[in-house]
């Protein structure tokens, strides 16, 4: 019993059984996190470097906690304040760190494909913690875990992913994962933020009307409007975005069922999600964060088991 | 294949182990039974059922423990984790660990490590159905033994349960 891959670069590379193993293992780690001593000795002989070339709060803390709960040794590296500003290349930086006997690399980078590049050139196991606009696999896994925890299964469930689909690595990883696990997916948002040919390429439904998307779904995964990745104007103002695509309490109250609301964080309150929704009991945003540690423990534990193979 | 315990013998052995535990535990409210996942729980389920039948109303606690994350061979082979469910405090309690076969002792070592993460028990005892003598790699011995057997490394002891394998018996393969 093991994963089909040595690295976690993206959900695209996983087979459904991998996802199943990761989620099942995460369930057991979640129980570990309820114990008086929230720590197991599994990875006590493993050293992990957290390589963050891009800002992060949740993911970084979550990975670090997961590593510590597994008894791994950890090193944190952020691009700012390092020799990256002196012009050192990514490969040189990583090789220098690896020469100090590091076994696994958790990496976030603003360039899509950066972890894939590393995986080709270095022997350590790589975990992608978000690369550009490509994938954010552990976020999709923890989203799936949170949905499964509430709804029992992913199969046949209707998930609407709402917002900036174009720039979102969370959306892409979620789409890959949900489709592999037999869920129905709708992407919703303004036409300027949804790439062309989405429906054919990914076998998802495309909806430009937020109200219709909410009426259809069991779970609404609301994405952040990524102000840092928008060089051109794709909608006229944040206020207009909120009016057309912001998830509001009044919209949810008018549905004939109670849907779950998710958000990968950080929330732009009053833009994609109104405060009263974010803090309502329909929102499982903080559960997602809690589950993130257990899911990342599962990923690290399962990949460490494959370390040292050829 | 050689039968070590038939279904009838197995039932008698489980009855005896349960009575020995009852005899040794003056106060069952201070006793916790913990079955070790995955295969120890078939035995612990039966023992707990037997004890409860003989001491109705006894406030004995029962939980199950998975030791996957505490194994010393994580890197050799990946094991699937099972559920751990210890929804009570073991602080200052008498804990009886239950597993089906005691072989190298490594599982019990891991179980004791895992157990200590839940608190500090007053005492830990070990109950096993089959003790494979002379094969220990750690200084661990059972307090309650169903049957001791002598076997060689290439042999394998299989404990079959009605609920899981369709038949109650213990065989040497």
TrEMBL record, chain A:
Residues 6-149 form the Aspartate/ornithine carbamoyltransferase carbamoyl-P binding domain. It is an enzyme of class 2 (transferase). Residues 155-303 form the Aspartate/ornithine carbamoyltransferase Asp/Orn-binding domain. It catalyses: carbamoyl phosphate + L-aspartate = N-carbamoyl-L-aspartate + phosphate + H(+). Keywords: Pyrimidine biosynthesis, Transferase. It holds the Pfam family OTCace. InterPro entries: Asp/Orn_carbamoyltranf_P-bd, Asp/Orn_carbamoylTrfase, Asp/Orn_carbamoylTrfase_sf, Asp_carbamoyltransf, Asp_carbamoyltransf_Asp/Orn-bd. It comes from the Bacteria. Catalyzes the condensation of carbamoyl phosphate and aspartate to form carbamoyl aspartate and inorganic phosphate, the committed step in the de novo pyrimidine nucleotide biosynthesis pathway. PANTHER family: ASPARTATE CARBAMOYLTRANSFERASE, ORNITHINE CARBAMOYLTRANSFERASE, MITOCHONDRIAL. This is Aspartate carbamoyltransferase. It comes from Flavihumibacter stibioxidans. The lineage of its organism: Bacteria, Pseudomonadati, Bacteroidota, Chitinophagia, Chitinophagales. The gene is pyrB.
Automatic annotation (TrEMBL), chain B:
CDD domains: PRTases_typeI. Residues 3-163 form the Phosphoribosyltransferase domain. It comes from the Bacteria. This is PyrR protein. It comes from Flavihumibacter stibioxidans.
């Amino acid at each position: 019993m093991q994963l089909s891959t040595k690295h976690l670069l993206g959900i695209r590379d996983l087979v459904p059984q991998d996802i199943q193993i990761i989620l099942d293992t995460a369930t057991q780690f979640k129980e570990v996190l309820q114990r008086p001593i929230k720590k197991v000795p599994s990875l006590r002989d493993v050293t992990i470097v957290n390589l963050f070339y891009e800002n992060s709060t949740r993911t970084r803390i979550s990975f670090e906690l997961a590593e510590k709960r597994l008894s791994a040794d950890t090193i944190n590296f952020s691009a700012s304040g390092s020799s990256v500003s002196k012009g050192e290349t990514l490969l040189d930086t990583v090789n220098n760190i690896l020469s100090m006997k590091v076994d696994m690399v958790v990496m976030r980078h603003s360039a899509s494909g950066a972890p894939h590049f590393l995986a080709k050139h270095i022997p350590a196991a790589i975990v992608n913690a978000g690369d550009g606009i490509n994938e954010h696999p552990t976020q999709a896994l923890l989203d799936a875990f949170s949905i499964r925890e509430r709804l029992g299964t992913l199969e046949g469930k209707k998930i609407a992913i709402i917002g900036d689909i174009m720039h979102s690595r969370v959306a892409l990883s979620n789409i890959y994962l949900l489709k592999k696990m037999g869920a129905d997916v709708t992407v919703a948002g303004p036409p300027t933020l949804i790439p062309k040919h989405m429906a054919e390429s990914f076998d998802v439904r495309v909806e430009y009307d937020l109200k219709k998307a909410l009426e259809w779904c069991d779970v609404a995964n609301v994405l952040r409007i990524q102000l840092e990745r928008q060089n051109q104007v794709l909608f006229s103002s944040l206020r207009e975005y909120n009016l057309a695509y912001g998830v509001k309490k009044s919209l949810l109250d008018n549905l004939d069922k109670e849907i779950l609301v998710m958000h990968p964080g950080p929330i732009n309150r009053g833009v994609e999600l109104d405060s009263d929704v974010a803090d309502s009991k329909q929102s499982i945003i903080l559960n997602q964060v809690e589950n993130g540690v257990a899911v990342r423990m599962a990923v690290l534990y399962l990949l460490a088991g494959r370390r040292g193979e050829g | 294949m050689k039968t070590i315990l038939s279904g009838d013998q197995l039932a008698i052995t489980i009855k005896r182990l349960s009575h020995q535990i009852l005899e040794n535990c003056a106060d069952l409210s201070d006793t916790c039974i913990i079955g070790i996942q995955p295969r120890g729980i078939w035995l612990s389920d039966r023992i707990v059922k037997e004890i409860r039948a003989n001491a109705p109303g006894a406030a004995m606690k029962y939980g199950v423990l998975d030791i996957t994350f505490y194994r010393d061979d994580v890197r050799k082979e990946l094991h699937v984790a099972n559920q751990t469910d210890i929804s009570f405090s073991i602080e200052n309690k008498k804990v009886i660990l239950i597993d089906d076969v005691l072989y190298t002792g490594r599982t019990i070592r891991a179980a004791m490590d895992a157990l200590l993460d839940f608190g500090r028990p007053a005492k830990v005892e070990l109950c096993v159905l089959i003790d494979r003598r002379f094969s220990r790699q750690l200084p661990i011995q059972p307090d309650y033994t169903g049957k001791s057997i002598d076997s060689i490394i290439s042999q394998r002891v299989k404990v079959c349960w009605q609920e899981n394998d369709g038949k109650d018996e213990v065989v040497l393969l």
